[in-house]
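Hi X.,

You mentioned you wanted examples for the new student's onboarding notes, showing what a folding record looks like when two proteins sit in one file. Here is a clean example. The first protein comes first, with its sequence line followed by its structure tokens.
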Amino acid sequence: MLLSQYRKPDGRIQVVARDGTEAFEVRTVKTLYELAMDCAAEGQGLRDRIARLGLNGAVDMERLYAEGSLLPPVLHPDPAHLHLTGTGLTHLGSAATRASMHAGAKAENETDSMKMFRMGVEGGKPANGAPGVQPEWFYKGNGTALVAPGSALASPEFADDGGEEPEIAGLYVIGPDGTPFRLGFALANEFSDHVMEKKNYLYLAHSKLRPASVGPEMLVGDLPQDIRGTSRVRRGNEVLFEKPFLSGEANMSHSIANLEHHHFKYPLFRQPGDVHVHMFGTATLSFAEGLSCADGDIFEIEASDFGLPLRNPLSRAAPPAALARTEIRAL
């Protein structure tokens, strides 16, 4: 089952479900967040709740996409209570991609990135159900940084660059007793500033403080073991970049359960009612292939298990001649 949301002309959010090619409105006035919190409180599965509610008329998802009506699959009514986070060096090949970004740096016996990658390969999938080695982790922002499918990913005026990262994200709500509940998985563009990161790997935290987009549709159920998708960058009618991206545990050095554990082990991330969008990493970047994206370029990420592709244009502000210092006032 795939679930999505769109905003009606009256401003109300409508949940949509589909199994196969046809999509239908779910017979409810609640948002997906509200339905999920009800399920968490009552101990009911999301798929079962949708089946019990039933469906109304069919909807044209492509038309809604073109009109700009589609929303991320889940939102929080207060954006400050939605957390955008992620993990890196989790996919086989991701260390090589990271190394190519830092080519020309001072040679060492083994970089910290490679050490962390090897730790994941050796201990990221423990067979006994115990926690494995912790991955690289980063923070991207709160719900104000979550961009709807079709909307622009804005690169700030102080940025050095802005490029796509095609990933799979897990979407979660925290139940009334602090238990994390996974709603499902969706395509994600973990948009980042790779030029800044290339200057020094310790700039990774800065490079990740950018918007991200998730959706349009969320897969309810288990994540496929072997996900084979495509990442593209379009400029007008030209495809500047097209390359497969792989995900799913068959292509990862960490299990999903291990990545989830090391995020939700912190009480900070188990606050009742919060929403989490956690991105699991990638090994495919157009930047690593030498592409510098420009204002108006379109990122397109698709994988058949996740329904419609995720598309977002890049909005890149021209850097000012001199960046003004942020004014801080004393009270």
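Then the second protein repeats the pattern, sequence line and then tokens:
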Amino acid sequence: MTIDTYDGTGVRPAHWNLGPVIEQLRISREATHNIRHQGRVRELPSREALTTIVNGLSAVLFPTHYGRPNLTDESIDYFVGDTLNTTLNRLTEQVRRGLQFTAQPADGNEDALTEQANNITREFAAGLPGVRALLVSDVQAAFAGDPAATSIAEIMLCYPGTIAILHYRLAHLLHQLGAPFIARLICDIAHSKTGVDIHPAAQIGASFFIDHGTGVVIGETAILGQGVRLYQHVTLGAKRFPADASGVLIKGTPRHPIVEDDVVIYAGATILGRITIGAGSTIGGNVWLTQSVPANSNVSQAQMRNDCR
């Protein structure tokens, strides 16, 4: 006996009366609830492709750590060149897709969009040596700042904060060059992998170290100086969101903290608003801070309670 099935389960297909449902979904999609950018279908960037791209760029920047451990002096430049060429070709297509949601080429000119993507990718490639220099300073800061670290290789392969910073450094350069959608996706990939959420527009100086990492949030307009160290569950967020006369949120306004050089912020601290943490300061664990503090301050929970009396 043969049983009609949809999926091999042996269950007869039900009569779902799908015609009206499909029609109503089409009306919602095309008319009443159309959320497409400028009302038309566009090819979205691919998270899978961007993951491959970041892996390729990581291998280019640190070939024996993220590429092939058996590379030799004779083969390493060939590996870097071949990997970089392939990766940049992939990146150009993703940048082009992302620009469809942020750029306005004249009359929808696809050639102009492709040329813009090529230019961004070319400038991005030129900026990779600078990105590597920053990443080396970040890894060195982690090694110097964590007594549990036994080697640079351990930090690069095992520390989620390092992985998140690598994604951020690449994404920040793309954001600066005019590819914000792709940049945001790259940072979100890192967020999914590490639990660290850094907006690609944030400005972060050299020798940056995130210890443990999980739950760290750094907002769009945050500015961090050099030698900043954060621990898990630190939030550098906004205190309020200004709106215009019609109640629509005003985007891009400075609303996140400025953290000056050599500041240490311990686990669970929440720092909100456009305030300044002076250079050399230490912010204790679980502190809730919404006011600026001068350089070389030491802020703890007990001090915060005393301030409120």
